[in-house]
Amino acid sequence: MKVSLFITCLADQFFAEAGVAAVRLLRHLGCEVDFPPGQTCCGQPAYNAGYWAEAKTVAEHTLEVLEAAEYVVLPSGSCTTMLRAFYPELYRDQPRLFARAEALSHKTYELAEFIVRVLGVRQLGQGLAGRRVAYHHGCHALRELGLRQEPLALLQSAGAEIVDWPAAEECCGFGGLFSVKLPEVSLGMADRKLDTLPPTSQVDCLTSTDGGCLLHLAGRIQKRQLSLPIKPLASLLWEAVQ
Amino acid sequence: MKLSANQYPQEAARVLREEPQVRQAVTGATLNFDGKRRQAYAEVEAEAWRRWAEGVKNHVLMNLDRYLEEAEANLRRNGVAVHWAEDASAAQRIVAQIARAGQVRTVVKAKTMVSEELGLNPLLESLGLEVLETDLGEYIIQLLGQPPSHIVGPAIHLNLEQIRRLFHQRFQTPLEASPEALAAVARQRLREGFLRAEMGISGANFVVAETGTLALIENEGNIRLSTSAPRIHVALVGIEKLLPRFSDLSVFLSLTARAATGQRLGTFVSLIQGPRRPGEPDGPEEVHVVFVDNGRSSVLADLEAWETLRCVRCAACLNACPVYRQTGGHAYGYVYSGPIGAVLSPGLVGLEETKPLPYASSLCGACFQACPVRIPIPKLLLSWRQRAVAEGLTPKAEAAAIRGYAMAMTRPWAYRLATRALRLLPEKALDNTLLPVLRAWTAGRAGLSPSPKSFQQLWEAGEV
């Protein structure tokens, strides 16, 4: 199976090792992975801020970059949602571009989603035996893509224990530009997430499929001097097969 | 009502800084409501109910002219006087006229958001009338001179201590009085008001066109008393509140209660079919319905925002919203706060007066999942943001930054250059920057540190 990785700008810049882990994991599962050159950002910052003209120019660029792909896999639920759900929305008045957006939409998957729903893999190995993992559900992954069990099942199958976290499905307060437009509200939301975690002595790491959420939570964790390591989901899943 | 929605960002920050008890009170109460709502949805085929309710409301809105005329005819047949108010001042004139004709001195009010929207209390007080809010939460905030901070729980931002102090100052109750004792004091005063008042003002959850029935849901019994004890009952009703058939109530009454408070049905449901009839021992002598437009027709004509008119004012979206939980409703600066307020208010009073509200969301989507009539709030937030951009209401620096971003992201060489530049910056350079965006980031978070090499660089170096 041929898979094209869309790394996403945040993972490219801040979580490069998660991208490496995603490629190795996909290869390990028998996929041939390529990295279409020229890729940049999916355009979501402009889309969410209401600048649809700019969002469209970025989206068109991405449509071109990924046109030839058989499957597109992203280590991010939010950017997957942008490609899958919001690109067609952007072009609802432009039939040709809409058709291209629809074609991309149908072949685009978040990493854990791809592994479970397309590859049909539910068991990755035992590399996470005894690890206590706090799983943050990114909002787009959870509510737009409907991914709840897939990432948890993969982690658990490798021996990880998902810790009880009352706010696991609540927004962390990142929200892209939201985090800097309303920083106090955004931090209040991060604190609500962190304050409802079990004591950090009972959690080995916090993970999520979304780099934006992780960057925001990691920044807050460090500022508050909590000792809680952050691991992108792709990195953990690669460890699972070791 | 006084409008200060354009101060939202400053107000939200101020509430978090200066009134930390608000975050605590609102978070606790909304999580409780939201949890009960989830349980109450899980008991029924909530998805089917929501889709059905959405369909009924859409049908009403697409045929609103017809149903309004049908409702008017059937209300009149029931002996109800029907009035039409195009805007707030027309509604004020109508209510003032009814009060004058009925020689009213005291008004008891059941909780009604549309009366807040119309600024009715200040008007009635300026006419020399005594106005008494009878919902316990509304009564408390009336004593404090505050507007409601939540559609269903108007005093949700207050904690028990604050209410104890208030009652101690006003009614000399002990500072350690139990909630039951405080409620008993309020009840005593409200009962006196019900007996004294010549006029009761309510809203309506629904008006059934087929039968001319007003339907009201509540838990305290104050709505039933406000609408039946005084000589005159005036119901203020937004024109979108219609249901076609009486049988539609079977789902809407339960769905609304489940969404609002997680109840299967409100403790009291009043179905009002007009004034006291000959031979009946009680009930009002006059019943008036004031159908209020106040911006709703133009929202209905809006190709996207019309969907907000399905709203049944249950506040499930507020309870589900992690942004609302941080500050409560006052920061939003308008009567309708939270997610629904952020998409409804720009339609009712204009985007220019409410422009920060569509940005008061991380677009997490919890509101849509809670909404009993499936209003696509995240999509509508984006729609208002787009219009803000199109109308030039966003900061110039932001527009320029987004243009620059789009230039860089459509030119792979520029993206590569930015990737390299990010790694040539001295360590901590991103922490102490003058760029406002990065300052806002680092104010409460540790600085950003890029991976030593980007993924793209690793791939191209054959290291993957």
Summarize the structure.
With 242 residues, chain A is an alpha/beta fold. Helix content of chain A is 52%, strand content 11%.
Explain this structure to me?
The complex is a heterodimer of chains A (242) and B (464). In chain A, strand 7, helix 12 (211-223) and strand 8 (230-232) form a beta-alpha-beta unit. In chain A, strands 2-1-3-4 form a 4-stranded parallel sheet, with helices on both faces. In chain A, strands 6-5-7-8 form a 4-stranded parallel sheet, with helices on both faces. Chain A folds into 2 domains: 2-118, 3-Layer(aba) Sandwich (Rossmann fold); 132-240, Rossmann fold (3-Layer(aba) Sandwich), CATH 3.40.50. Chain A is built from 13 helices and 8 strands. The longest helix of chain A has 15 residues, at 52-66. Chain A has 242 residues and is an alpha/beta fold. The longest helix of chain B has 23 residues, at 20-42. With 464 residues, chain B is an alpha/beta fold. The model of chain B has no long low-confidence stretch (mean pLDDT 96). In chain B, 51% of the residues lie in helices and 10% in strands. Among the domains of chain B are: 44-294, Rossmann fold; 396-460, no CATH class. Chain B has helices at residues 8-18, 20-42, 46-62, 64-77, 88-101, 113-118, 120-126, 136-144, 160-171, 179-196, 222-228, 249-261, 296-300, 316-320, 324-327, 338-349, 366-370, 377-390, 396-409, 412-424, 436-442, 455-460, and strands at residues 81-85, 106-109, 130-133, 199-202, 206-208, 213-218, 232-238, 242-243, 268-272, 286-292. Chains A and B meet through helix 1, helix 2, helix 3, helix 4 and helix 8 of A and helix 1, helix 15, helix 17, helix 18 and helix 19 of B.
